[in-house]
Every structure is written in structure tokens, then in C-alpha cells.
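Predict the holo structure. Ligand: adenosine-5'-diphosphate.
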Amino acid sequence: MNLIFLGPPGAGKGTLAGLVSKEYAVPQISTGDIFRDAIKRETDLGKKVKEIVGRGDLVPDELTVSLVRERLTQPDAKKGYILDGFPRTIPQAEALEKIQKLDAVVNFAIDDTLVIERLSGREICKNCGAIYHVKNMPSKVKGVCDKCGGPVVTRPDDSRESIMNRLDVYRKQTEPLIAFYQKRKLLKDIDSSKSPGDTLAQIRKVLGPA
Ligand code: ADP
């Protein structure tokens, strides 16, 4: 099953991709996670994208597409995958079409006010990338990851300024993908304003049994 999770930042794509990945036994491929890992390890890629990601701008299409193309050749992606955070522009979507056939695009719909609230309280494990929220989904021990014991921190690009920029970037560059995939009859709309459990139930419904 080749899937895309589409939606604004803070819609819950990453959290749900983790859950769906387990249930449907396909890997979660998050371009955001790949970039954050490269930044943390200070690789060439990391140095190139650090400022862009920090501002909440998009990494250039060419770089992002070649990274995803390479990732999709890995053996674990043969049985399917969830692309979380890719594509984010029409050129990325056009490039992906040339690489592989998709089965569904899950469109996470949510209001801006809720997005801002979620992103302002979001925390992430610096070590394993697990996602938390100070109010809605706190780690059991403050600042310590439930899963790996690593440090749980605020993401540098979850500053107020970067959040507003990412919403703007989403509207201008990513939202046109809704019409793009509607035209291809791949779009499955879900309401992601409720709990992760509720959203997961909706995704099960639109995707069918694992
Ligand atoms: P969020 O969905 O909360 O904005 P992500 O983890 O998906 O966070 O992405 C974080 C950042 O990584 C983005 O703001 C952007 O700078 C970069 N990024 C991720 N995916 C892409 C992509 N497909 N194209 C360009 N840049 C990307």
C-alpha cells in the first residue's frame, strides 16, 4: 500500500503515520525526520538545510525529490510506505508520479486555530523523534521520552514566527495538491481535529482492513 499523508503542519500526520505504519506494517517515511536527523548529525545535507528548516521554508524540490527517490529504493519500501510530509509542492508530486504508483492520499483537514495550539505545545524526543504535546499528550515524566528515555524538547522550528510561516507556505505551495490528487481520484478526506484514536478510526475506514 503506497500512501501519502497530506495536510498542514500540526494536523497530526506524523503521530498518525506512526500508528498506521505499525498497523499496516509499512514504513513511515518522513522527509521532516530525515532532515532533522541530518541536522542533528551535522552531515553535508544537514548543514545545507539547517537554516531553511529553522525558518519553516521548504527545502528545494530537487534536493528533496532525490532524497525520497533514494529512500524508496530501500528494501523495506518494496511492500509499501507512508509518505509523511512529501510531496509538499506540485513539482514534487509530479516527480513522484514518475517514480511510483500511489494507492491513496489521506487529506488531514483541520482549522488554523487548532494547528497553532497544537504546534505551540508540541514537543519532540531529540533522540527517537517521538511526538508529544505539553497539554494534550505529555510524556509520563516531563522532559523524558516514554519510548527511549531521550530528552523531550520543543522543536526549534516550532517558534511562533516559524509556525506562521509554515502555515503560509502550506497554503501557497502545498494546498494545491488537494486538487491535484482529487483529479486523480486518490484523495481521502478525514477530519483530524479530534484525538489520535478518532483519527485512526477514520483512516481505517477510508483505507480498509490492514
Ligand atoms: P511540519 O509538518 O510540522 O511542518 P515536518 O517535520 O513535516 O514538519 O517538516 C519540517 C520541515 O522540513 C519543513 O518545514 C521543511 O523545512 C522541511 N521539509 C519537510 N518535508 C519537505 C518537503 N517535502 N519539501 C521541502 N521541505 C520539506
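The longest strand covers residues 104-109. Strands lie at 2-6, 28-30, 81-84, 104-109, 122-125, 131-133, 152-153, 187-191.
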